[in-house]
Amino acid sequence: MNQNKDQRDDVENEEASEESGDTSLAAGGEALDLEGLDLTVETVEERISPSETNVFDK
Amino acid sequence: MIKLPSNDFPVTLAFPPQGHWTQPHLALPCLKAWLQASGYGDVQQMDLSVEAFDHFLTAESLTRAAAKVQQRLPLARFDGDRLPLGQMRAWRAAAESAASARSIIGRVESAKAILRGQDHPLDSDRGFWDPDRYVPAVRTLYHGLRLVSAAHYPSELTPHNFTMSYSNDSSEDVLAATLDEEQNPFIEFYREQVMPRLLERKPRLLGLSVLYGSQLIPALTLARMVKAALPDCHITMGGGFLAYIGDKVMSAPGMAECFDSMVFHEGERPLLMLCEALRLGEPLHDVGSLAWWDRADPEHPVSVKNMAAHPIKLDDAPAPDLDGLPMDKYFSPQVVIPYDVNRGCYYGECTFCTLPTVIGPGYRTRSSETIARHVVELRDRYESTHFNFITDCMPPGMIKELPEQLIEAEAGITWWADARIEPKAYDADGARRLYEAGCRKLLFGFESATKRILKMMMKGQSLKSVVEVARNCTDANISVTFYAMVGFPTETREEARATLKFIEEHADIIREVSLQTFHIDEVAKTYKQPEQFGIRVLDAPGDLALYHDYEADVGMTQEEAAEMFEEMMASFRRNLAIFSGDNIFYFMQKSHYFLHLAAGETPQGFSGRCADRTSARAEREADPELTVSEGLVTVPLGFSHSDAVRTLGDPLARAARPDFLTGRYVRDADRVAEETLPPLDPKQRFLLYDPENGEFVELRDGGVRVLAALREHGTLGALVAAQVRAGASPAAIDRLEQFAAELHRLGVLRAAASTSPSTPVLASARG
User: Fold this and answer.
1) Residues 6+ apart with CB under 8 A from B60
2) pLDDT the model gives residue B523
3) What is the pLDDT of residues B647-694, one digit of tens each?
4) CATH superfamily of B334-613
5) How many CB atoms are located within 10 Å of the residue B681 CB?
């Protein structure tokens, strides 16, 4: 079973929370374990399909 | 010439989805003008493609789409232990919709207004000219279409394509797609937005223009609906794509239920003859270039193909008539008027070219005097000074004469066009004269930097002349785009890389590259004489198949050519300014870069600003004033979004979808991909959607905790200070700042100053 299912259900119930209501994820004002937290950031550059670069076509 | 009361024979011409959304297509305005000049006074034209984009991209439509996504693709459905490839695309659509739907719905109208230059009463402040408003607006519309696509999963509608799970290669598939309301978004669109108008108008003839493969299913969908509702309306289809596969379509079972006839090649004369025959109740045997169904036995329609019609004398043809097109719906601040200066190609030797199949044999042109007269007429009629001259290439004589005529007529226009390398015509003086006459951008068929390949292509151009022409144009402030091809039969990786190297070494004179992978269709010389090119053409399944796979003993395989396309495009993204970062949207939206040039920007200036913009973003640092982007949405996920996007971007996975250009499936591709690409293991991830930028970013739990803390403290400076007070080490603070800097580069965090209206950095001198 997926470990995040409950979390996902919550989100769906709220239609994707704006993050201003998301403070439960961090202890505001408390020290963060900055050296222990996983701060990986991932973004994926979309691959461009051939015709998407074809200004002659569309 | 016949003279009719305008309401005697109502004709409707329609351009079905999907075509480009920034400017009108040319075919219908040419046909409307011709019919009207011939006495048919009641000709309606509808650009249903841009109407559909406009309709889908409304808050109301997107709200419905979002609800449908939640119903069809609830995220909770993907709660297995692993996410196999077969579910990955649906999961991605569900995840992205969950993160972005509400923001997109809230912003879609302003995004459209920005692209249309309607977002502010003062021209200088309109967001179209400001990349920090333009790019997010474009992204918002792209993501809006993803939402529409997710609602009709697995169909995909983008600004550049429309594909379904049905293959364009098979008539059975295509016809089934016209009835599948779950997947075909156009059924509802037609029923609600188009059919009421047609039912009220009751056209005697409906003409559908099908230029692209992406229009085939949408065109037949509409045809079928009209046929059922208006059985007395004759439905004819024509256009570039059907010129390739028309004979096959006319032979396919079931097609006669959707439409009545098909026009091959140029449409003016056949369409007029068809109107005449229908109006007078005459048989269709004498209508030139027409294929039609003889319904003498209604149960068994018989396909008939008539003799070809003579092409028209182009110089006698009236100027295109754009009346009735939804000019306010195109996603551009100023309409760019398409105008056909000639048809066919005066050179006509290139071995890869299939133009005669589309337009018919021969080369015809309008005179420079006529062009200048029409341009002035169109300029005044549609109040636009921007033109896209539709031509395969202008002959050297016209390159000299046309500028003179445009200057003499005081046309005062700007324009762009395709061109052929003609060193004598595009000498320094010639290029200056072209600029003076309004030319701002030329797109040359370059194809390859390898002499051997150029010779096989019979391009008839030297690399020396290529550089000479590009430099002369650049010096005259005309932007140069090169068409390039990868994977021409026998081309090796080394030869393709030589082309890449050549282009990048001349990046100061080549601003854009339109790169294509080579495909073999059934009308190409490479198909008809494969031995001449050292290849073996393979059979293609499907009764509507147009494109074929091939094998070669020498050079890259098709798969290797596809990989080389990726390699070259990635390199262009690094080394051509307009391709760098999100500047590529200027390239991908037809005419948008041109509009900046038309407004007074120089190619060098624009490229420089694009490069500055990319590097400025890359150099963003951990400013103490950084705050969390307003409206940032976070959705927890059970799998990694970036892993999914990467996997789906694999050529194997992409082959399991209809090919972008050809619309066909690769045999067994889904099975091979599923066997080769591993499923995703569960990972706790968070997908962020930043509505200000219209971008997705993925974080882990730690990153989201830091973001929440940052929001609580207000600014990065305040958070850092609090962490220092709480005893954080310098290394920990450094880590926090690196994280913040990275998010700043991605737009998730922004400096307080950047939240105020930004100053346009592109197009500083608009007219």
Assistant:
1) none
2) 82
3) 988 878 877 766 655 656 666 778 888 888 999 999 999 999 998 888
4) Aldolase class I (3.20.20.70)
5) 11
Q: Are strands B550-552 and B535-537 parallel, antiparallel or unpaired?
A: antiparallel
User: From the CA of B382, how many Å to the nearest CA of chain A?
Assistant: 23
Span B234-248, average pLDDT? 95
Q: Which of A15, A42, A53 sits opposite B642 (nearest CB)?
A: A42
What's the CATH code, domain B11-49+170-305?
3.40.50.280
User: Dihedral, CA atoms, A52, B629, B692, A50, nearest 10 degrees?
Assistant: 0
For CA atoms B26, B393, B457, B524, give the dihedral sign: positive
pTM of the model: 0.92
- Treating both helix axes as pointing N-terminal to C-terminal, what angle do B669-676 and B85-115 enclose, rounded to 10 degrees? 110
Residue B758, pLDDT above cutoff 50 = no
Q: Among B283, B293, B205, which residue's Cα sits nearest to residue B249?
A: B293
The band of B79, judged by pLDDT with boundaries at 50, 70 and 90, is: confident
**Of B631, B627, B486, which is closest to residue B570 (Cα–Cα)?**
B486
Asked if B743 is an interface residue toward chain A (Cβ–Cβ < 8 A), one would say yes
Helix pair angle (B428-436, B396-408), 10° resolution:
40
Residue B24 has pLDDT above 60, yes or no: yes
Query: What pLDDT is attached to residue B122?
Result: 58
Whole-angstrom distance, CA of residue B97 vs CA of residue B91: 10
Q: Does B76 touch chain A (CB under 8 A)?
A: yes
Q: Which two tokens stand for residue B150?
A: 């997710």
C-alpha to C-alpha distance for B381 and B377, rounded to whole angstroms: 6
Taking the domains of chain B in order of start, what are their residue ranges?
Answer: 11-49+170-305, 334-613
* C-alpha–C-alpha distance, residues B132 and B761, integer Å: 9
For residues B495 and B451, give the distance between their C-alpha atoms in angstroms, rounded to a whole number.
10
Q: pLDDT value at position B661?
A: 59
Q: What is the ipTM of this complex?
A: 0.81
Using the Cβ of B636 and the Cβ atoms of chain A, whether some distance falls under 8 Å is answered with: yes
Please state the rounded mean pLDDT for residues B157-167.
91
Strand B336-340 relative to strand B685-690, pairing: unpaired
8-state DSSP, B88: H
Query: Which of B23-32, B114-123, B749-758 is predicted with the least confidence, judged by mean pLDDT?
Result: B749-758
Mean pLDDT of all residues in B556-570? 89
**B 324-383 residues inside an 8 A Cβ radius of A:** none
Neighbours of B425 (CB within 10 A): 20
> Up-side HSE of residue B395: CA atoms within 13 Å toward CB?
15
CB-CB contact of B517 with A48 (8 Å): no
Partnered with residue B236 across adjacent β-strands are B207, B261
Mean of pLDDT values over B11-39: 96
| Residue B590 near chain A (CB below 8 Å) | yes
